[in-house]
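re: that complex we talked abt at group meeting.

here r the seqs, copy pasted straight from the sheet so there may be weird spacing, ignore it
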Amino acid sequence: MDYKVADLGLADFGRTEIELAEHEMPGLMAMRERYGAAQPLKGARIAGSLHMTIQTAVLIETLVDLGADVRWATCNIFSTQDHAAAAVVVGRNGGTVENPSGVPVFAWKGETLAEYWDEAEKVFDFTDESGNSVGPNVLLDDGGDITMLVHLGVEFEKAGAVPAQDSTDNEEFKEVLRVLERSLANNPGRWTSIAAEIKGVTEETTTGVHRLYERFKEGSLLFPAINVNDSVTKSKFDNKYGCRHSLVDGINRATDVMIGGKVAVVCGYGDVGKGSAESLRGQGARVIVTEIDPICALQAAMDGYEVKRLESVVDKADIFVTTTGNFNIIRAEHFAQMKNQAIVGNIGHFDNEIDMAGLAKIPGIVKSEIKPQVHQWIFPDGKKIIVLSEGRLLNLGNATGHPSFVMSNSFTNQVLAQIEVFTKTEQYPVGVYVLPKHLDEEVARLHLDALGVELTELTQEQADYIGVEVSGPYKPEHYRY
Amino acid sequence: MDYKVADLGLADFGRTEIELAEHEMPGLMAMRERYGAAQPLKGARIAGSLHMTIQTAVLIETLVDLGADVRWATCNIFSTQDHAAAAVVVGRNGGTVENPSGVPVFAWKGETLAEYWDEAEKVFDFTDESGNSVGPNVLLDDGGDITMLVHLGVEFEKAGAVPAQDSTDNEEFKEVLRVLERSLANNPGRWTSIAAEIKGVTEETTTGVHRLYERFKEGSLLFPAINVNDSVTKSKFDNKYGCRHSLVDGINRATDVMIGGKVAVVCGYGDVGKGSAESLRGQGARVIVTEIDPICALQAAMDGYEVKRLESVVDKADIFVTTTGNFNIIRAEHFAQMKNQAIVGNIGHFDNEIDMAGLAKIPGIVKSEIKPQVHQWIFPDGKKIIVLSEGRLLNLGNATGHPSFVMSNSFTNQVLAQIEVFTKTEQYPVGVYVLPKHLDEEVARLHLDALGVELTELTQEQADYIGVEVSGPYKPEHYRY
Amino acid sequence: MDYKVADLGLADFGRTEIELAEHEMPGLMAMRERYGAAQPLKGARIAGSLHMTIQTAVLIETLVDLGADVRWATCNIFSTQDHAAAAVVVGRNGGTVENPSGVPVFAWKGETLAEYWDEAEKVFDFTDESGNSVGPNVLLDDGGDITMLVHLGVEFEKAGAVPAQDSTDNEEFKEVLRVLERSLANNPGRWTSIAAEIKGVTEETTTGVHRLYERFKEGSLLFPAINVNDSVTKSKFDNKYGCRHSLVDGINRATDVMIGGKVAVVCGYGDVGKGSAESLRGQGARVIVTEIDPICALQAAMDGYEVKRLESVVDKADIFVTTTGNFNIIRAEHFAQMKNQAIVGNIGHFDNEIDMAGLAKIPGIVKSEIKPQVHQWIFPDGKKIIVLSEGRLLNLGNATGHPSFVMSNSFTNQVLAQIEVFTKTEQYPVGVYVLPKHLDEEVARLHLDALGVELTELTQEQADYIGVEVSGPYKPEHYRY
Amino acid sequence: MDYKVADLGLADFGRTEIELAEHEMPGLMAMRERYGAAQPLKGARIAGSLHMTIQTAVLIETLVDLGADVRWATCNIFSTQDHAAAAVVVGRNGGTVENPSGVPVFAWKGETLAEYWDEAEKVFDFTDESGNSVGPNVLLDDGGDITMLVHLGVEFEKAGAVPAQDSTDNEEFKEVLRVLERSLANNPGRWTSIAAEIKGVTEETTTGVHRLYERFKEGSLLFPAINVNDSVTKSKFDNKYGCRHSLVDGINRATDVMIGGKVAVVCGYGDVGKGSAESLRGQGARVIVTEIDPICALQAAMDGYEVKRLESVVDKADIFVTTTGNFNIIRAEHFAQMKNQAIVGNIGHFDNEIDMAGLAKIPGIVKSEIKPQVHQWIFPDGKKIIVLSEGRLLNLGNATGHPSFVMSNSFTNQVLAQIEVFTKTEQYPVGVYVLPKHLDEEVARLHLDALGVELTELTQEQADYIGVEVSGPYKPEHYRY
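got the structure back, here u go
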């Protein structure tokens, strides 16, 4: 079996943690129970790119249990849990370190950018039952990197050439170009034939979804996409409650600094920002919010937070967290004004929310590692700023990401979305879709028992009165929860 | 001037309160400043049916300042603030009790159902500049009562007859039939000609909106409707933050019972339920939620609330609040199991969330007034249950409703919606619409200064990066806030 | 029967409210049940001076049920609930408006300062069983006014003269001098003989207790005092949870202004300040605390509040609340800098926390009543400041004070303290005492059932392990809760 | 230099962390600045027994900077941070791994009980300037172990014999007896002479303080003790805010289980319980409290928590935390009823809050390590219970203990207490003392700047009005904060 992970010896520990996580992921367990016999993903070749954590391991093995052939890479160079990767590779049912029987994984904690894109490419190398090289027929993406690889591949193949690496300043994009150049050299029609086979992609996160809508708007989208991010049970749970959990967890593990009594700035008050602000307030911090959207700004004010421009408070705060999904939020001029030992981290999707490049260019600044994923940036005058996970996702880099229970919601949506796009292909012409509301409600329903929730049932009269079915869906499409 | 209110002598007090409220309603004040000269509502004859409170007075006078001719009734028999009604009638600019110069209002606190529908009918009696009787050309509705009057009027006129009053058990609907029967007797084409003139209705609340969508679905909607309720700055502010304010205010004024330490059941965890639960928790109550929708139930659990069926907790709780928009939520069998001196109230739209009729039919039960809008229902065994506002909206019946600031958001949406539907008639064929997002954001923006909020501005690069204009709108349509 | 109240006709309404309150005052009901037969207060003549509210009515009637003869005045000119006073005077057991049979009360809402002190004096005029004029033998005081009357009376009688009224600038103290001068003229030994009969005083509040410790330190205390305020079940419940309830209640009833999103300054972070800050935060306000004590300031910071000097924030806040027990906290120079329509109120004990006199002296300022207990102070430039209850206790002046349940804790302490000081006189030489901890725990215990609390019982082994009795007390004296 | 730690190679990492912690410990830094020159601890030989963490390293080096000679052991076998121990041994000012120049430390993570007591004994082996063996002249203790060693040593020396190890069932006490038996064999007067030199002990925690009061009551206390635990800036900060921080931190690091939506039982609602409940609620858990003290139970109810007996909820909860300071709180019969994968941990002082011995004796139960300090206990039917840190302090065993800022408060009290007891020996006859309130306030004051707090200053008039000095102390001794 081909794979590339840090150390298969971690598989036993990974397996123990996977078993613990399964208890916390009732939605995925229900998927196995409900669909295990029917094998709805039989024939699916799923190329996945999503943080290779313990929770993702439960997702991967659920996809396998539903019949799929799966290959996996991570979507973030720091977020891989090496024991999770190892356990997935070794597999269940008699797989061993010597003779692994699980799913090919291409991920380890701390990849370089070059390695990241080399490994990403490998999730496209399936072998069919006859032993032929084939591509995937479904993608499962987080942030859109492998979706981009296919789209750029097709675009460059059509153009007959890949732009030169020095056509871009972006270090990461240079690697993308390098990988595609190599690919075109080897096989100038590869991505075009891969794209033709893909029934669709299910995309996990805001940033990736945004890219998909852009492509669809400009007419360049190559296959249908299901926007998992905007299922209520994803966006309102993973983004909000997941970050409530993992933000303070990440800060604590990274710094051990008391959050209570501190002034914390949360940039952005979308779902991630809402969960982040609650997380910090729950620990006794005084939270200040920055926002560009007047509606979210008003929500923050009504929730009791001070709402200011970053410039107005940058010299008074102790902790800074970006949650915007935008870029260049915290810049060199902000770092220059921060207090000594201010802590700066990002829980939005990309590392460019914090201008790390700008920070590195401050004359005389020195970067010093305190421990992995925690660095001091020391100014010439001795002032130190602590930056978490080099500006990448701190909850994944400094802690273990969202907890299993909340990921069970997101990932049950993923499984349902994979089934939709793979089995009902004709219902999904090229476009971007959210899952129908009754599936969204079903995901929620599968997680209630574990919390001891008793759900009230509508009487037929009550259902008629509000014009819904007794079994739902209960709300109009535009309902905001 | 024709009007019917409790006591014009209250006008001075009402005017003082209106002036205080204006300070808290920056959105409406901005409307006056921005549009006062242009008079976009010149020629509009607005028939309004919405709680006749101080805040509504500021709305009415804003509509007048924008050029409209206005007539007003309430949408709830208990919610009128008599001093507000008086002040609106007396008016500004030299109006006096002897010689009122304001807007005709037909509302007083404590109307009977018969009076309510008699007065509702009067908002349709406009006089044009030549002194002719005409109908309104725009409706502004809350709950859909005057919209229903028009629709039923047209329907019965088409049928040539009104059903007999004893065709219904519903006490209130008997009154509707009575009013329409009288109308048809006088003028069998009246509603049909009124309907023909109406450019549209702007509807304030969930329940009314629901009725509009139903009508539109079944093809019976007669004119376009703007769903003000589902503007984010309405549904997420008025419903949630307004109820957070006014729920405990209503309970406190009604009962003076300490909420801290008590067990409170909130039926429903929509926006109203979310605000209600937060209101009670903020006072130290332990809140239990009931829900039918698994998504909202899961939200309640993640927010730390116990989620149970009413039957499981009805004998252990001290306070019960319905917020569902559905009916028959708290029924006679529930009352029978409650603790002595349990407090029961409704903050959803209609009084049938609590089955008051069923309560009254319990053998041997006696109703005793503690003070206006607060009653004890005494069981034969001496057990007493305290019911607020006879099951109608307790925040309006027992307190003063939502506070001005939150209503300024809702009502600024109303003003913008009135302008849309009146001035851009051709853009709104029959259907149900929400306001475009940029207007929603504008409403929010008009309320930030008052709270000392500093809004961050996108750079052009950042706007490009996320694919929006620097000036917004900032979010996709499906965004849930 | 002698009494002086607003209107006995309110007695029926008062009685209904008293019965409702009894349900919320399980501690006092338990006192009646436990001690009703034994009549431990038989022979006690209790002179009381404490806000004449519904809750106090339940206290008074509990004292009567335990055998006491009681006379009552209020301790605050605005706090009397007239229906409560009326009901207490009319009494139970067949008392009527024509022929009242209850307890003599001398209090009505809105007394002048002169009336206040005239009425305060009347609680000393008992008649014994033989019909002779006698004084009280126990005092129950709130703030120390009647205790002061006795002490000053004795002092002036010893001196043979009362200082001239113009020896003081303090308007209120002039009235004290007037009353005592009249008394000395009538009976130059009256207070001396009254004092000789008094077995002790039980004092309700911080301010009164402070005065008692001062007197004791300087050697002038004339009889023993029980400091009820510092029972845990008083100071940590009434002060904190009572104010959490009644602060927002008072602001809401007075102003109807939305608290959510506003900036509120709470001056002082003692128990009253802690409850006040929580009250406002629970409604979504952003709370800023001012403090002089570094320990309380650090607590406020750790609880997530901004801590600033008033001067730094006075021009940015919307709501100001004083809770300090000190004086001259908000002064004319502060008012001058406040925003238009800022709301200012006091929930500490005395009205001098806010310098009302200084406010009134601002050149050109005009005071205008919005409604009773709510005034606008209009500056020459048109700026308006809203002052609640003329700077007196806003929770009593604008709402109904602390709710019954929390007062049941305080007042059960009062009853136990009255029994202690009346029946165990010899155990209390002149001094200031707190109730023994087992009584404090008993008060708490009597309130648990009503909240559905299950108390865990220590095993004998566990009790031995921590060195306490199974039945308590459980904590060392210095424990802070 | 003698020492015994895990690995001196960790010293560099420890030093980096110590420097970060110094920023968060402004109180200790202020001590160094204020007293560094005066050297008030010159001549002090301090034997310390307190968790050997990074924060303790800052304390130790502060004591050294004030002139003391120090030897250190831990007070808990799991709590040592090996890099902290290493850094303290290597020291500053040119110490190296090869040639350490710091303070002798005898502690590593994961000692056996036998090792623990062997190392504890070594803190008594000082060498004076002439090179003679001497004992300490001050103790700094946490939990009272080294204080007990001295007292039992003296007692057994007086008796001339140590009881046989099999006279006790307690595994740990067997080790105490072993160590003392060895000591008496070597030097039968050692402890008696050590005790004679000791000027006093400063004790950190509730449990240790409780033992001291017991000894003082029974007349066996050998030297004065300062109760640091009951300084407000310790008990109300370390216990409450420290646990608010470190409880969720410990649970997160140990289990990665989502706390939001879960049911958590907190046994005990003292300061530790209050902080723990807030910690869990801040993450969205529904918290149920158990209590034996009716006052604390009532506080919990008023704070909105359900209060139940453990038996009533043990089968419904997901997380259990003991905070009582008592023993046998969670017993075998409770474990038997818990849900699968319930999480059980202790944040009180001793590991006997959870009956680990009873758990181990359940027939057929199997203990399996998930990772260090996290074990599954697998019942014969397959049910698994997760126990953290083997029942010892989970915040130290599973996370890094209280954060620096809160420990700065506690440890600044320790430094002040060491100075008191060492320099003012004559003012402290044998007894148990708390620090005077002005020192408590000073500790708070030293921590305000770091949080941006502006402290208000009393005017002289205001100070006079409430009868305090402008500079404090501000509250009576009995004040509870």
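couple things i noticed - The first helix of chain A runs from residue 11 to 23. The mean pLDDT of chain A is 96.
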